[in-house]
Amino acid sequence: MASHARQDPAATRAAWGDSVSSARFVDAARTEALSRLGIQTVGDLVCHYPFRYLDLTETAALLHVKPGTDVTVVGRVHAVNVKKPRPRLTIVEVAIVDGTGVLLGVWFNQPYMASRFVEGEHVAFAGRVTLDYGMKQIRNPLFEKLGGTGDPAMLGRILPVHRTTDGLSTSWLRRLVAAAVDDFGDVEDFLPSEIRVARELMPRRAALRAVQFPSSHAECRAARRRLAFEELFVLQVGLALRRHAVQVLTGVAHQIGGPALGHLVQNLPFELTCEQCGARDDVLGDMASSVPANRMLLGDVGTGKTVVAAHALCVAADSGHQAAMMAPTEVLATQYADKVGPMMSAAGVPWALLTGSTPARRRREIVAGLADGSLCVAFGTHALIEKGVSFADLSLAIVDEQHRFGVAQRLGLRSKGAATDLLVMTATPIPRSLALTLYGDLDTSYLRERPISNTPQTVTEVVPVSRRRAAYDAIRSEVAAGRQAYIVCALVDESDSAQARAAVKEADRLATQVFPDLRVGLLTGRMVPAEKSKVMDAFRRGEIDVLVSTTVIEVGIDVPNATIMIVEDAERFGLAQLHQLRGRVGRGEHPGRFILFPDARTEESRRRMEAISSTNDGFELARLDMTLRGEGQILGQRQSGLPELKLADLTEDMDLVEAARDDARAIVDTEPGLDDPRNGPLRHEVEQRFDAVWEWVSSG
Ligand code: ADP
Ligand code: MG
After folding, report:
1. Which of 224, 288, 234 is nearest to 257 (CA)?
2. Whose CA is nearest to atom 23 of ligand 1?
């Protein structure tokens, strides 16, 4: 099996799809253990990259080991001790000696560690050295057994350490991986050689070997870089194909400069900022072209995206077509209608608002108006993409708050027209590396600054619960000055009735005990839309002083007179959510205050609170968020449907992300079907790793 495969790289690659049980040394029990690690196929095993390495090339003599440093040491097990200083505490101490000194490996409450070591055998420990009662020690060291005599073959090597599971020791797993790399590692390189040369990347088979068994740190880095690049590249080729599938369609070349646009521009109460002009030019430029637009407008809350969108709506109407603007919640959709609707009316553009709570009769009118083309612009929610809704001639789809809609819904609105221009707007600032990865098929325009910059920035304070009273006093004084306040209760899973009750109870307490003299309103996600709107309207009109809200989403509102917000259990919110919430205050001429009550005092919570207080810049915050959480989680949460990134690190590998995207676009632009036989392996790789998108591309 192995030997003939080695002669034919394509056959070897094909064998990657075989069950891992066909790999050397893999019996039934190991097959089962591997499957618990998510390793099903031979390829999974070859690509089970180590999460770290034990470096035996540079070991320190125990005498010279310094507390506070990270080291690898090698020695002979001198003694194994188990101590029980307290009823619920077990300490295992393994003392090793090397002729120059002694060092302890220490494990807490892992009594079984004692049986792992035998006096006289050689071991390597790695980790951070501390000094305890004058003894050098490493707590929970990474360790490797080197046999009775200190296997000289191991010394001088960099050993891979893999994530493993019960019933499969690190050394056995290492042996399985080594065999798999030997037998199945000689595969073709699917990266076009021009790219490999230009980017100075290692050949694939060398990289697959070196990432597992590097001979030096430099080689290890080079291998990881090569493999990280290929992950990003395959992903970007998939995205570029998705983008290309839309670009070959012929869309509407809109007329810029019609009467509605002219009217809008003349009657704007302000001048667009430079950034807004840039974004407007991007969007209108897309619309003027017959290539269907695929653009994302990224800008924090309050950066003025809506008015840019209004320009696009006018252009669609001027050109005799229709436009739809979809928001994720009824409150936001209604807010668009309230804000942009009048601009449309003034410009002579007939429009309507369609949501889940539009009365049946009105809905029928609107559906008819959209179908016969008498309505030019529709604002709305998911209601816009329901089956019964069709447009006479939709040429522009604007989807707001993209992250709350799936790709399917994004495409759903677009598919209400033929080759419709698509503009996605999001107020979730994400770092460029992540944007390129998640939305690599979209062009991007950024709004980074708020147009109204003469108001001082909102101040963020993290307040210990013991100073709750002071925060309530702050609300009082704002209300006394004629302002309004929000109190956001713990992030509530509205489907969890126990939680919902707790939040409602808290709201009650605030209304009756803390602010009995103020006008307190309550907004929960469980209220029916009509009830919600009633509360919202009252707040907007200033008839409510303090709005207690149990939901995050519905707070997507614009009330310039609201200047202060308190968030309970702040650490339960994501940084992006907190930042969105913060954007609700200080929207008018008065400065905002944003007060956080965290409850847990974990290190992670503390760092996140520190991050939110440290900056008002959403993009900077997103970057901090990503470094705190790791992009894996962020990607996972988005259920992006994109291939997994095992080695690429979006926080570190920005240059690789850019390079992969440029190269991917270049290759898809020159050869959209990847039909050249030379690109067969690449095409195959993209199909393998990206099947969902590939299906979409081939069907679209
Ligand atoms: P976003 O949609 O990005 O949250 P909006 O479009 O709602 O932001 O704009 C926030 C506020 O700023 C609105 O009240 C809007 O009227 C105002 N605004 C937008 N652009 C400008 C500008 N160029 N100059 C002054 N005010 C502006
Ligand atoms: Mg166009």
Report:
1. 288
2. 272
Give me the phi and psi of 61, to 5 degrees please.
-70, 140
Burial of 568 (0-12, 13-18, 19+ CB in 10 A): buried
- Write the pLDDT tens digit of every residue in 378-408: 999 989 999 899 999 999 999 986 555 555 6
363 backbone dihedrals φ, ψ, rounded to 5°: -60, -45
Centre of ligand 2 to C-alpha 301, Å, is 27
Which of 307, 325, 579 has most ligand 1 atoms within 8 Å of CB, for mutation?
Answer: 307
Residues with CB under 6 A from ligand 1: 270-273, 276, 299, 301-307, 451-452
Cα 484 from Cα 473, distance rounded (Å): 13
From the CA of 560, give the closest atom in ligand 1. 14
Instruction: Check: pTM over 0.85? Answer yes or no.
Output: no
Q: How far is the CA of 302 from the centre of ligand 1 (A)?
A: 6
Residues around ligand 2, an ion, CB closer than 5 A = 251, 287, 289, 421
Q: What is the pLDDT of residues 458-490, one digit of tens each?
A: 899 998 878 889 999 999 999 999 999 999 887
| Rounded (to 5) percent helix, strand, coil in the chain | 45, 20, 35
Model pLDDT, residue 694: 43
Residue 226 and residue 207 in contact, taking contact as beta carbons nearer than 8 Å? yes
8 Å CB contact between 231 and 643: yes
Distance in angstroms (rounded) separating the CA atoms of residues 618 and 241 = 30
Beta bridge mates, 94: 80, 105
CA distance 567 to 593: 11
Question: What is the DSSP code (8-state) at residue 429?
Answer: -
Q: What is the CA radius of gyration of the chain?
A: 30
- Judged against a pLDDT cut of 50, whether residue 123 lies above it is answered with yes
The residue type found at 529 is P
